[in-house]
Amino acid sequence: MIRCFDILFSFIGLFLGFPILFLIFILGVFDTGFPFFFQKRVGRYKSPFTLVKFRSMSKDTKSVASHLVPIESITPLGSFLRKTKLDELPQLWNVFKGDMSLVGPRPNLYNQLKVLQERETLGVYKVRPGITGLAQINNIDMSTPELLATADAKMISTFSVAKYFKYIFLTIAGKGQGDRVRY
Fold it and tell me: Is the whole model's pTM more than 0.90, yes or no?
């Protein structure tokens, strides 16, 4: 049932959001030269997949967790995209393809060993990663691996269709800040 919602909502989002996606793409060309950002992330059952986002950092920024990135790496457009969460829009393609769900644990990098360990211990990788979830609406990010894994495991164990819609609604309403860049 959830997968059907994911396919339907991601298709609608991509279709109706195309003008916004196109505008951000054009602005991104002027901002960084190439507006998309592709990165290998940990998916369901720890399988790799390529996450796509709008680029919010300069092209020479190291591939590390957001909380380890210096603020100088964030471009002016990138700052706006992060604050409005518009940098996440291209992930609707990942949802449509089945790499991700709209709701689930945020996909981490393979070099985030503590996050990998904590999530593995609590069985978080048994579900598709998501764009938003319990941790995201509560401002819990990858900088606190134990707290993150605990929130993810709680979300998974209490998951329902109603909570799926609740997490999406709260995210759209602006609850949560997403992954932090340390200032």
Answer: no
